[in-house]
Amino acid sequence: MAKVMIVGPVGAGKTTLVNALRDYQRPACKTASIIFDGDIIDTPGEYSQIPRFYPALLVTAMDAALVILVQDASTREVSLPPGFGGMLARPVVGAVTKIDLPGADSARAASRLRAAGVRDKIFFVSAMTGQGIEELSQFLNERGCNLWAKH
């Protein structure tokens, strides 16, 4: 089974996205450490925002077949440095989250993901409305990630 690692800043909606992909009906809690949950690796936002945590992401990415960089469409902040995805040595796709929120700017968020190193597909998703979740889920399943697998 192929694992996917979810990476992005604090509050970007990584764990909420994981819950939506798995159809979990539970509230998201702050991710305090790297969580290996079946074929999904959920990472704390601080790991992408504080350079001293980058080595942990680099080592963890070795367990993943694919990395999803997450960008919140409702924020104006630049949260990931230019070329960030390139250091992970894995294929990197993007997920623009919170596209349903007022003031969300999906184009700006996608541009930020491209600057951060996403060269492949970018998915536009809302965990609250379900928009884009099925497309992302299908993409992951086609790449061997079993979203419901428990190891």
Automatic annotation (TrEMBL):
Highest taxon, organism lineage: Bacteria
KW Nucleotide-binding (keyword) present: yes
GO terms, biological process: biogenic amine metabolic process
Any one Pfam family match given in the protein's UniProt record, by short name: PduV-EutP
Keywords: Nucleotide-binding
Record-linked Gene3D superfamilies: P-loop containing nucleotide triphosphate hydrolases (3.40.50.300)
Molecular function terms from GO: ATP binding
PANTHER family for this protein: PROTEIN YOEF
Family: Belongs to the EutP/PduV family.
Protein's name according to its UniProt entry: Ethanolamine utilization protein EutP
Species the sequence originates in: Sporolituus thermophilus DSM 23256
